[in-house]
Amino acid sequence: MEFKKKSFWNRPEGVTGSIVLGLIFSGGAYLIYAFFGTLIALASNTLYLAGMLIALGILIYMILDPKARNLVWYMYKSTMRWLTALFVRIDPIGILKSYVEDLKDNLGKMNKQIAKLRSQMHLLREQIHNNSKQIESSMGQAQQAREGNQEAVMVLKSRQAGRLKDSNIKLTDLYRKMDILYKVLNRMYESSEIMAEDITNEVTLKEQEREAIYASNSAMKSAMSVITGDKDKRALFEEALEAMADDVSTKVGEMERFMEMSESFMSSVDLQNGVFEEEGLKMLEKWETEGVSKILGKEKDELIAGDTALVLDSPIPQREKAQETNPYDDFFNEK
Fold this sequence. Notes:
76% of the residues lie in helices and 1% in strands.
């Protein structure tokens, strides 16, 4: 699993850096404008002129020299990160811990959704079965009415059977959609439960690793690595943690959006009156046609295809044993 490195400007501290940089340039331009006359007067003095030229020379040197430029850039980024951390949580370990809490909370809600959907499907299946029995009964009565030359009764029972057939066609289609939703919710629940365990274990390990890396790579050593052009182990480790947090954020977001969609879908179904809103079906159909799921992966297409028949009376599927390798290990193997 590869991750795309985010530039400094695409991070929260980058926003702070942009604002601070804008303030520095604006303030500098204002000061030059306000004290332009004073600077001209000072330049007439040889001593002050020499001092200004030295300052300008230092500035040009810092811009042109790669080592000096890297050091200033490192110090600037570190300062902006420290400043941003005063107002926004940017520690990836802390962010990942909050995502684990969100995942566990969502798992509890999803489990209730699965139970509710399972109950609705039982009721819907019973309604379809009762309609089928009523269709047979109405058709039988219509046949008897025809044989008895009771045309009015025959027409009434035939129309009743026709309406029930139309209703069953819609209800059967609804049941198929519920079948897909049930399978997806179950699979998403299993995958999310495994993911929560993976992240919990990974965070514990990476927290220990970070302490070791920080102990062996001080801020001064990191700065020297930047100056010499070597890779900063602390920065690389933080980048991998941030990439992991971004990936988990995307998956948690997908999980929450699907839960909202499924809740809206289930709320749109009125089984007692045998009606449902088309909007609920459209939401589910839209999800089916969307891109690859970050949580389900290629399995999404298999679930939508519905090749495996669902047996409602069977126990709720238990999640599979977690895989031995953690998918996030590759983030920290990137060099």
